[in-house]
Amino acid sequence: MRSVHRITMVVVVLTLAFAFGASAKPTPAPAHHPEYLHALADLRTARAYIATPDSGELHQQEKDAIEQIDKAIGEIKAAAIDDGKDINDHPGIDTHLRWIARLNKAAALLNKAHDDCAKEEDDPASQGLQGRALEHIGKARKFVEQAIALEQ
Question: Got the DSSP string for 30-81?
Answer without folding.
Answer: PPS-HHHHHHHHHHHHHHHHHHS-SSSPPPHHHHHHHHHHHHHHHHHHHTT-
